[in-house]
């Protein structure tokens, strides 16, 4: 499989049908694992990296993990394919960096619910990604993958610290739990800052899903745990799943109801203006498209706009990204050309929907 | 006739079909006349004003001027009706002012090509207003009206100064010639300031058609002569018609072609975004609607948008104004309600067109 074949649809995690999918776009769990007997990746030489890759490649694509897993050699992939995988949240940005020419690759489930990077910051980074609020399902799935891998591979483990990782913040369980949340109402009412402060006090990281820095383009926020040491996996997951996420969902839903009740005309105006621009513009940048899609998504979720379904909107968050856009149109483009192509694609997909 | 009956269409001058109507919305000529034997209006008492009105009312509505002229007593009209007439450019804003309770009125042609105000700044203000570049036709029409009036009424006239008027700047011919121009491309390219400077050097006044101050909402500019003394009517008209206006039209058309050639995608983007917002927004203010209509009008004129005709766009410049909007919906509304009603009316009229 080449990444190019993925382009005209989104993975399972953008299906938009999971529980609480009005607010929770997707649930993600990631484990960090390292092979005993090898230095951490940043301490290895090329020969050792090849050895790690050789030890892992067959293991991570085996049938017991998934029926139709595929292997993509990142050092062989072209720049656009790498960027495509980053946009789909299947590999990390540093892993895709073309300056990094060392042997590395990723195993992907055909439905993109899992991705296992070999020779990223750790020897193995296992990720499970599912649509909506499915942390328990993701936890079960990643547990099964971890069990299979552990049968075949000898992981670096300390009785005192737990799993050993290149960066101490990942040591212990090596687990990172996160959800991608769509919080347009908290953004519109200005309450998002309160939520961010509260999350920081709970030692959670809140960052924008798209775009660098603190700005969350498209009102999409990733909330994740920051510490993995001193708690069991179950405790980390439990706090997150039973307290933090439901609370943020409740705040967002309150804010949505407030907007409907107190600022109905302004709310509808935002939603429909976004629709008008998405279906009419001839030039469209990445930041703007995310903001407009966010407002349309809010409109669909609140039943105030029925001209499109959630799946189409979710997919457009992805398909309007630069690499996807270029893959879809079949040619590399300059930014100015991309803005024109993006506007055209939006009109086509939204008029047809 | 009450002004309310005019509301759901525009007068002849917004028909959008006259010569050069891509750029020239309308042509207007105005004459100032005063009755001999009465002081100017600002020096009259109420009794004298009644006498002037009595002397003029029958004359200005007589058949020889027009078949179906109507008389509207402005001191009796309600505030919304007065505002409606101001928005249609049939009476002046001071004339409509409710604080002015003195006897006054206006004779209107059924097609709104002429309006004769009695007891405005001068005893008589005669205006002819026609769509497109029709200054010669307007000049002929106003000449005929003036001739008829002069047969019955004794106008204050001096061999030395010509017609005498309340304000010296109107004395002489008492004529003011103006065109309403749509100059969106000169605005977009920033060259409008050059045109304004050049016009000022030719002793012409350039001002926005809608809105106070120097801003021209909707890119609609009124260009008019400032001096009426020392030139014949024919000279004033000739300069204006053969030199000034054709030059501005040529500049605007050059700017339009430049935009098509050098900034095609950006131009289409503006045009189509305007269309998207006009047909989608749920809240719409007066300034914004004029700007968006301006860009749509440019799009229609350049053949880049064919989802609406010019007449509908021209009419919407008028029908979205506050008094028209309230008359159309049949009830007085607060500004916030008007913004919602305006957006609704736009969607209805543009989807149906």
Automatic annotation (TrEMBL), chains A, B:
<dbReference type="Pfam" id="PF00217">
    <property type="entry name" value="ATP-gua_Ptrans"/>
</dbReference>
<dbReference type="GO" id="GO:0004111">
    <property type="term" value="F:creatine kinase activity"/>
</dbReference>
<dbReference type="InterPro" id="IPR000749">
    <property type="entry name" value="ATP-guanido_PTrfase"/>
</dbReference>
<comment type="similarity">
    <text>Belongs to the ATP:guanido phosphotransferase family.</text>
</comment>
<keyword id="KW-0808">Transferase</keyword>
<protein>
    <submittedName>
        <fullName>Putative phosphotransferase</fullName>
    </submittedName>
</protein>
<feature type="domain" description="Phosphagen kinase C-terminal">
    <location>
        <begin position="23"/>
        <end position="255"/>
    </location>
</feature>
<feature type="binding site">
    <location>
        <begin position="26"/>
        <end position="30"/>
    </location>
    <ligand>
        <name>ATP</name>
    </ligand>
</feature>
<dbReference type="GO" id="GO:0005615">
    <property type="term" value="C:extracellular space"/>
</dbReference>
<keyword id="KW-0418">Kinase</keyword>
<dbReference type="InterPro" id="IPR014746">
    <property type="entry name" value="Gln_synth/guanido_kin_cat_dom"/>
</dbReference>
<feature type="binding site">
    <location>
        <begin position="176"/>
        <end position="180"/>
    </location>
    <ligand>
        <name>ATP</name>
    </ligand>
</feature>
<keyword id="KW-0547">Nucleotide-binding</keyword>
<feature type="binding site">
    <location>
        <position position="125"/>
    </location>
    <ligand>
        <name>ATP</name>
    </ligand>
</feature>
<dbReference type="InterPro" id="IPR022414">
    <property type="entry name" value="ATP-guanido_PTrfase_cat"/>
</dbReference>
<dbReference type="InterPro" id="IPR023660">
    <property type="entry name" value="Arg_Kinase"/>
</dbReference>
<dbReference type="GO" id="GO:0005524">
    <property type="term" value="F:ATP binding"/>
</dbReference>
<feature type="binding site">
    <location>
        <begin position="207"/>
        <end position="212"/>
    </location>
    <ligand>
        <name>ATP</name>
    </ligand>
</feature>
<feature type="binding site">
    <location>
        <position position="89"/>
    </location>
    <ligand>
        <name>ATP</name>
    </ligand>
</feature>
<dbReference type="GO" id="GO:0046314">
    <property type="term" value="P:phosphocreatine biosynthetic process"/>
</dbReference>
<keyword id="KW-0067">ATP-binding</keyword>
